[in-house]
Amino acid sequence: MKGIVSICCFFSLLLLALAEEEEVEDVLSNILRDRSHIDETLRLASEENAAENYHAAIQKLRKIYHAAIKPMEQAYKYNELRAHEISDGEITSKPMVLFLGPWSVGKSSMINYLLGLKDSPYQLYTGAEPTTSEFTVIMHGEKTRSIEGIVMAADSSRSFSPLEKFGQSFLEKLIGIEMPHKLLERVTFVDTPGIIENRKQQERGYPFNDVCQWFIDRADLIFVTFDPTKLDVGLELEMLFRQLKGRESQIRIILNKADNLATQDLMRVYGALFWSLAPLINVTEPPRVYVSSFWPYDYAPDTSRELFKREEISLLEDLNQVIENRMENKIAFIRQHAIRVRIHALLVDRYVHTFKDKMSYFSDPDLVFKEIVDDPDKFFIFKSILAKTNVSKFDLPNREAYQDFFGVNPIGSFKSLSAQCSYSSGCLLDKIEKAITSELPGLLSSINPGKAPPGLSSCEATGCGDKPKNRYRKN
Length: 475
Description:
This protein is an alpha/beta fold. The protein is 49% helix and 9% strand. The chain contains 19 helices and ten strands. The strands form two sheets. The chain has an eight-stranded mixed beta sheet, sandwiched between helices. Helix 3 (48-75) runs parallel beside helix 14, helix 3 runs antiparallel to helix 18 and helix 14 packs across helix 15. The longest helix is centred in the C-terminal third of the chain and has 33 residues, at 326-358. 29% of the residues are buried.
């Protein structure tokens, strides 16, 4: 009997000790981290005048696009070649920050931390298991509310209407959250479902990789987040990094939950992360990896608190630079788009003239044009465009793309550029060249008085194929 009593006492003491330990852990975990450096680094208190200037510049950019670029797009059906239509919502949209990575690595917790959503009704759900199954868009609004994906896609004033092409199954997995927040006045966050290596795309019910590519193409900054315990690279993660090719300057890799490791273990994990990513990122410079713990609670004791704090501030400075450069990036994007539209129009014009030159009274038009499309180099179509000034060979589309393009768009449906003129509105080619050479650079110089506008004599004007500079990297 005494033995039984002793055992009961032992287990009672053990349970009491465990309860006290859990209580201590709860107290430690409930110590919230100071967030004052976030507002300070992101300069959230000094944006009112800048916002007015930004909206005025956006309206000028929108006017240039509709007057000089869109008519050329429509005349030569550029959207059927690139399948990327620029809507008013995309022109006026805020910079987009995209969060990617494996499941349960802290993507949602990081958004909660940056926006101060801890214990609010609209904090993103987090947990140790795969929790985020939707694409969640967090954006600014006059009041806090959630918006169904079907409603977001139907609203033409937003930039998400093209997502309808991925079907109703995807729209059911898309959700928007609006809230009145100073940071969201300047940027939009997109939280994505975590990568699960043993899950196939078909199991999600929609083309997951295609949807990711849509967001990647429009993101101004891409946070690829990792957990120290989830560094293995599988097929789905490899596919994700293949989709990120060409966007290396926008990628920021985050080693999250770093305060869970001792310093020596953290060094090993840091090296293992580089070893895992090396085959996936084909750049001459190693990618920037931020090591910290991005969530609302205080850092774990006996960890490199000062290092983690500096890393966090450095990441916030990167985010702030993207926000401050949002107008410059928007103008550069529209200008690059205009250059591609102009080159496409020149190529279609060349196909039209070549077809007319080769046609005779007894010729079969289908056979003549098939010969031209199958072997454009025989007729110097692409070389003749390169002979023109300010056209780079690195900006030319693939020849095969025009086989598909003219397969659905008969050559007879296009006019030559010389015929795209009118007495009242002038010539389409003159308008788009004016936008590229003077109007867009002039708009850029108006918001940056100290910077000289780019001229078409430099490679910067047309993109001569050099590796793009990382505009977010500190010099």
